[in-house]
């Protein structure tokens, strides 16, 4: 006998010629909040992926991503940026410009032009940073307010990209207070795409005293910890729990991070299953 598929199923046949099955449900995993999330955010760093790669990633893993940042000034160069932002919006993933783009625009006296560009491209979020230039704090906070007034969700980055600059937890805490007062929705703790500055020592090890200080902030729940290295993600999850906000996650590490959050990797099983977090 020949089996004939109903018309509505034809488009869902996978490459092996069988109908896709429902997701498995036999394990008890840690529940993840539904989007839009206020904790446990995953913020990814796009270094210039092709449009089709973006679409493929979203088809597979959109549920795991909250904010998709276009690194540095890549949004200015990418001829498919409008299509990418639209693809993200269709999958309920927020799009964000890199902080460097606004810093350069400020340095050249055209910050408002950059904000208009972001509006025209339909970006959801703007990152405001001052780690690459000599921007005064007053100017940074003015940019935060202007971006928020234009309807953007504002991510304010704290900490320097200069590995030689001293790291003072009290200065970071004071900057958080001022940036939130200026209108920042989220605070991004600097780690760069290398994971060797700001939150981290040159060898990639976490500055534990700095992290401990940040957790004491009245706005600790707003902090997104840049953590491009998998070992840094695992460490922060052990220190702060599976609902910590993590940023600058590489696209290829996204599935692995979600596995840690829900307890499907050996290096996070104890934390998620309640077997200790030391």
Written description of the protein model:
The chain contains 12 helices and 8 strands. It is α/β, with parallel strands linked by helices and 278 residues long. The protein has one domain (37-263): Aldolase class I (TIM Barrel, Alpha-Beta Barrel), CATH 3.20.20.70. The chain has an 8-stranded parallel sheet. The protein is globular. Residues 1-20 and 272-278 have low confidence and may be disordered.
| CATH class group | Alpha Beta
Helix and strand pattern: HEHEHHEHHEHEHEHEHEHH
Contiguous runs where pLDDT drops below 50 for at least 5 residues: 1-20, 272-278
First CA to last CA: what distance? 60 Å
**CATH-wise, what's the superfamily?**
Aldolase class I
- Judged by helices, strands and strand pairing, the structural class is alpha/beta
Question: What is the CATH fold-level name?
Answer: TIM Barrel
As a percent range, the share of strand residues is 5-15%
Q: Say how many strands there are.
A: 8
Mean pLDDT: 88
Rounded Rg = 20 Å
Count of all domains: 1
- As a percent range, the share of helical residues equals 25-40%
Identify the strand order in the major beta sheet: 3-2-1-8-7-6-5-4
CATH architecture designation: Alpha-Beta Barrel
Number of discrete helical segments: 12
Shape: globular
Largest sheet: 8 strands, parallel
Task: Give a concise summary.
By secondary structure, the protein is an alpha/beta fold.
Which helices and strands, and how do they pair?
Elements: H1 7-10, E1 42-46, H2 51-61, E2 67-70, H3 74-77, H4 81-90, E3 94-97, H5 99-107, H6 111-121, E4 125-128, H7 137-149, E5 153-158, H8 169-182, E6 186-189, H9 208-214, E7 223-226, H10 230-240, E8 245-250, H11 254-262, H12 269-272
Parallel strand pairs: 1-2, 1-8, 2-3, 4-5, 5-6, 6-7, 7-8
Helix pairs in contact: 2-4, 5-6, 7-8, 8-9, 10-11
């Amino acid at each position: 006998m020949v089996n004939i598929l109903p018309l509505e199923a034809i488009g869902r046949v996978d490459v092996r010629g069988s109908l896709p099955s429902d997701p498995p449900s036999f394990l008890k995993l840690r529940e993840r909040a539904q989007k839009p999330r206020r904790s446990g955010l995953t913020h990814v760093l796009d270094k210039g992926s092709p449009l089709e790669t973006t679409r493929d990633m979203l088809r597979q893993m959109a549920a795991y991503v909250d904010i998709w940042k276009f690194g540095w000034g890549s949004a200015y160069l990418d001829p498919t940026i409008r299509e990418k932002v639209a693809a993200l919006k269709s999958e309920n993933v927020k799009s964000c410009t890199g902080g460097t783009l606004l810093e350069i625009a400020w340095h050249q006296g055209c910050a408002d032009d950059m904000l208009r560009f972001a509006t025209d491209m339909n970006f959801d979020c703007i990152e405001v940073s001052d780690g690459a230039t000599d921007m005064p704090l007053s100017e940074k906070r003015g940019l935060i307010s202007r971006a928020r007034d234009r309807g953007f969700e504002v991510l304010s980055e704290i900490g320097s990209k200069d590995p030689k600059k001293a790291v003072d937890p009290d200065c970071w805490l004071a900057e958080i207070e001022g940036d939130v007062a200026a209108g920042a929705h989220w605070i991004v703790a600097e780690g760069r795409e290398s994971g060797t500055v700001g939150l981290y020592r040159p060898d990639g090890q976490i500055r534990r005293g700095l992290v401990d200080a940040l957790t004491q902030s009245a706005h600790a729940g707003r902090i997104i910890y840049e953590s491009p290295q998998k070992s840094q993600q695992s460490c922060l999850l052990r220190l702060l729990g599976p609902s910590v906000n993590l940023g600058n996650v590489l696209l290829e590490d996204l599935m692995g991070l979600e596995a840690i959050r829900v307890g499907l990797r050996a290096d996070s099983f104890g934390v998620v299953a309640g077997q200790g977090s030391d």
